[in-house]
Each structure stands twice: as C-alpha cells, then as structure tokens.
TrEMBL record:
GO terms for molecular function: DNA-binding transcription factor activity. It comes from Candidatus Staskawiczbacteria bacterium RIFCSPHIGHO2_01_FULL_36_16. Residues 27-75 form a coiled coil. This is HTH deoR-type domain-containing protein. Keywords: Coiled coil, Membrane, Transcription, Transcription regulation, Transmembrane, Transmembrane helix.
Length: 123
C-alpha cells in the first residue's frame, strides 16, 4: 500500500512540474512581449526618420522661398507683402513669416508700420 511519504513525494513532484510549466509559459510570454517591443521600436525609428526627412524638405522649401524673395528685393529695390505673395504663389501670412525671418537675419528691413505703405528693402 502507498504510505504517507510516497503521497507527499508524488505531490511535490506534481507541484514542481506545474511550477516549471508556469515558468515556461511566463518565459514564452516575455519573449513575445520583447519581440513586440523591438518591432514597435523599429517602427518608431522608421517613423522618426521619415519625419526628419519631411522636416528637412520643408526647411529647404522655406529657404528657397526666402532666397527668391531676397532676389526679388535686390532686383526691384523693394517689395511689398502683396507683390511677394503673388510672385511666390503663397498666402500673405506665409510671406510675413518669411520676411520676419529675413528681417531677424538682418537681410531685409521693413519700411513702414502697417497697411499698404509697408515694404521691405535689402540691407
């Protein structure tokens, strides 16, 4: 007949087997999570690279537009917001931002305060 010691031994072995099985499941789950995080990290890296390229293109476009405005000012002597907006095909708000940047770089100077009398000259 099975004595008390053998019953305890069987229960310990079954318990250890269950514990090892649980550890194995936890390890597999951790591995899946690690792979998912690595994939997500790679996707974010690709996204970040795409944003950097996009921002670089926008910056180049802005610099080209500012150079075109500066060239127009040099050729005409002065230019208004309206003339610059028409020449570049952009809004007057965009031209104001471009001209403000050129003014901050000390490339152009605003003459006049407000209205249609405002124009910009090269420094």
């Amino acid at each position: 007949m099975i004595n008390f010691f053998e019953i305890v031994l069987v229960l310990v072995i079954v318990g250890l087997g269950g514990w090892v099985y649980k550890l194995y499941q936890d390890k597999n789950e951790s591995d899946r999570e690690a792979k998912a995080l690595a994939k997500e990290k790679d996707e974010y890296a690709e996204l970040g690279q795409g944003l950097a390229e996009y921002n670089q293109k926008l910056q180049e476009k802005k610099e080209q537009a500012q150079q075109k405005i500066f060239d127009l000012i040099k050729s005409k002597g002065k230019i208004s917001n309206k003339e610059a907006a028409k020449a570049l095909g952009v809004s007057s708000a965009t031209i104001r931002r471009y001209l403000d940047d050129l003014e901050a770089e000390n490339k152009v100077k605003q003459v006049g305060k407000v209205g249609q009398q405002v124009f910009y000259k090269a420094i």
